[in-house]
Design a protein that fits this description.
Number of helices: 3
Strand order of the largest sheet: 1-4-5-6-7-2-3
Number of domains: 1
CATH class: Alpha Beta
């Protein structure tokens, strides 16, 4: 993790995450995202990534994603309920809790650029609901 990452407690990781390599990639991506490990997140993205936070913003490219992530707080706890993969199309949902006692429910739809284990993320649609 990068030096700007926060301490994150990860709970409720689905036990079956080890059955599919892509599920582990999604898990690692979300842990990096919610722990504020910006460099790790950006490394997993294609340079021309498109990230839509539904109802809020659309980010184009890793520079915009990096700027957005640097301005966002890191979570202190991550509850990952479900990770679903089907080829290059994946999704995950759960809850993130922050130091100020706020929390948000999320669902991230993640599309990879190819089927290889090393394929980068080309598109994300995030549904985030403050609780």
């Amino acid at each position: 993790m990068t030096s700007d990452s926060t301490t994150l407690t990860v709970v409720d990781i689905p036990e079956h995450c080890g059955n599919a390599p892509r599920k582990l990639v999604i898990r690692d991506f979300l842990v990096a995202f919610y722990s504020h490990a910006v460099d790790d997140v950006v490394e997993m993205l294609k340079d021309d990534v498109r990230w839509e936070v539904v109802g809020s913003k659309v980010l184009s490219g890793t520079a915009e994603v990096r700027e957005w992530l640097l301005a966002a707080p890191g979570a202190v706890e991550l509850k990952l309920h479900t990770v679903i993969t089907h080829g290059t199309d994946c999704g995950a949902d759960g809850v993130a809790e922050y130091a100020d006692s706020s929390s948000s429910g999320f669902n991230h739809i993640i599309l990879f650029a190819g089927h290889a284990k090393t394929a980068k993320i080309k598109e994300i649609r995030s549904y985030i609901i403050e609780q």
